[in-house]
Amino acid sequence: MQVPRIKSESLITGLIKVFGYSAILFVVLIFYFLISEGFPAITEVSFSEFLKTRWYPIEDYFGILPLLVGSLVVTVGALIIAVPIGLLTAIYIAEVASPQTKEILKPLVELLGGFPSVVLGFLGLLILSQYVRQILALPTGLSALTGALLLAGIAIPSIVSISEDALDTVPKSYRDASLALGATEWQTIWWVTLPAAKSGVLTAIMLGIGRAIGETMVVLMVTGNAPMMPTGLSTLINPTRTMTATIAAEMGEVANGSTHYHVLFFIGIVLFIITLIINVFASTFVFRRKKRSERILS
Amino acid sequence: MKPKHSPARRNRTQRLGFFFLRLVAIVAVIPIIAIIAYIVYKGAPALSWEFITGFPSDGMRSGGIWPAIVGTFFLTMLCALIVAPFGIGAAVYLSEYAPDNRWTQSIRIAIINLAGIPSVVYGLFGLGLFVIFLNLGISILAGSLTLAIMTLPVIITTTEEALRAVPQSFRVVSRSVGATQWQTVRRIVLPQALPGIMTGVILGLERAAGETAPILFTAAVFFLPGLPSSVLDPTMALPYHLYVISTQVPGMSPEIQYGTALVLLIFVLGMNLVATIIRSRARARRQW
Amino acid sequence: MNTKNKIVTENLVLQYSDGTESLKDISLNIPANSISVLFGPAGGGKSTFLRILNRLNDLANVKQVSGKATLYSDTGELLDILAPDLDVTSLRRRVGMVFARPVVLPMSIRQNLTYGLEAAGERNKNRLNEAVDRSLRQAALWDEVKDRLDDPAVDLSGGQQQRLCIARSLALEPEVLLLDEPTSGLDPISTGKVEASLQVLKNNYTIILVPHSVQQAARAADYAAFFLQGELIEYAPGKEIFTHPTIQQTADYIEGRFG
Q1: Structural domains of chain A, count
Q2: For a disulfide at C89, which of A131, B168, B178, C55, Cβ 3.0-4.6 Å?
Q3: Which residues of C have a CB under 8 Å from any CB of A?
Q4: Is the predicted ipTM greater than 0.90, yes or no?
Q5: Nearest CA to CA, how far is C2 from chain B (Å)?
Q6: In a domain? residue A55
Q7: What kind of fold does domain B64-285 have according to CATH?
Q8: Domain count, chain C
Q9: pLDDT in tens, A88-115
């Protein structure tokens, strides 16, 4: 009775170990494939060509700059809206709302987080862009602004949930100490609770940035898909094109193995690296975990 | 010591401040309700038996969306079958078996990075590895594999959280009466973590069902004469269908567009609802 | 009085992974069928010592345990507790442990009791039920739960839960029972019940107890060892050590001059 059990125990332990290492394997695989399909782009197109400002692959113009800038403009625009609204909403839910209100608001925000982005893009196309067109007197409503507005809607749920969790984790004793010194709840929020939750809130914002930069369908559907370099203030109301939209729109039409094909993979590498940097930043802020030994002996 | 501001003034600041916060929260939340209500309002008229179970006709302008529904269903199911064992297995390893060292740290970092990769990059990866290199072609299998890798980090992190929530004292007690590591995991830790694990899996699948970019180059086609006959066939899918009929088909009736959006929404939010129910029922029945 | 020894440790030293020494050179003979008490102020190494005896310290990040610890089993064999290839699951069934906070598994009362036996491979329903019966009576809990064995164990009171934990260990018919401050969270009546059942249990088992007060130590001990900051200061029969301690530090602690 003993021996078979020991054998199956080590079998299962081994199997579980295999699963554990598979995560590393997949990251390596992804990196490898992106590089192997994207690297030829560097040899086929000179690096200085990438830094040009014209993206017109049909005539061999592979300037990535307008795409990078497009992603940047739309993301920054989204964050300007999403961070204040998201953070303030999180503060409201965590610190001010009654438990019943909290029970309603939290699931509601999570609901928005689960929305398929194509549905938001669809609504943006049919409704939001019409409003933008009318209010700003533009030829179409497809612009960087429309994209930024919708992206804010995508980023807000992430920012709200994670910030709210971070605020909830602040020990009650901090608040009690502040109130006991005569501060109001309002003052406690801004001087004690929020600073204590700083790292969690920063993580939330980083993840919001990640979601905004990585979003494809929404920007594909409402930003007008015209790769243009910024021209001052009117950038926002002009159409634009992001890196993600470029990949999605053009991948279906390229010949396998062509230069255009390799360049699209190259853009994928750029995206991968950008989100990698953001995630590394975010993970350095993540709360520390107790080591298993501490948990056992305590 | 005389305070600089009178209590009355500080209270007024607080009341104004709270009012402002409440306003912002409403601004953030009302659109959610409005969106759902609007889609239901405009899409419900399109929902008929023929719409849900019929095939499209007249270049998608009329008829039903059954093949898209079936496609999304199969993609999601196959994705679940692939990702669940890997994700839960990896999480069990990290939570219960992995030593606290550099290797384990690097695995966790790898997972966090996987989680942040844009869905379109997963689509590229799926194209390169599954469609081209493994020669699966544009197929349900390639699409499901791509979706599975995309969903993997979410499943691993939520499962690990669920496992860690089980009190350590249970494990110590179990080992102290002579149970092995695996017996402890199988008989106590996993059963107690199960509701949390299921919630995580369902929420991960919810995202997989609604994403367009990963299946764009790996599984989805706009039109199929019939239903796919094997996993090596391409398929129609709801998110992709909605994308195409709202951007590339002239003369499309808004009703059908809203109807398609509504069906997708029901599919996705239905999963959300199931997950929420599982989570709250488990919380009530917890024995610790 | 020539009493058989149950557990003998020689020069036991335990070092944590960060270098701090938790136990320094512990040599102790634990006699069979008696209550041996390990007492002393917090941080003395008593809990660590207990966890070596059932190899529970394997679960934590311990750098090194050196020395020797031997179990004189009822079957006649001598078990080297620290041997790396020792079957620890079997050891833990022979050396049971009760913890300071009652930890009942999230199952029914009956399942809590049969858990260890089922993990060992026991499937026979009769033997399982017999174990449930026997262990509950030995832990003085039978009368209070005999009608609700299939109810969740969390529904029991604190004192009942702790007696259930004792019963859970007894179900495996161990040779040694280790108890780490078993009554620290309990009211005086439950404490009294536990102490009374220990006096009965010692006839069939060897008991090593870390008490939560000097008074409990004095009430319960047949033999007592005074631990101070990882060292064994004094070890003597209970009647002697609490009335005439031979070492000054022991006397100081017993009389409350520090703690």
Answers
A1: 2
A2: B178
A3: 17, 59-61, 87, 90, 121
A4: no
A5: 32
A6: yes
A7: MetI-like fold (1.10.3720)
A8: 1
A9: 999 999 988 888 988 888 888 888 888 8
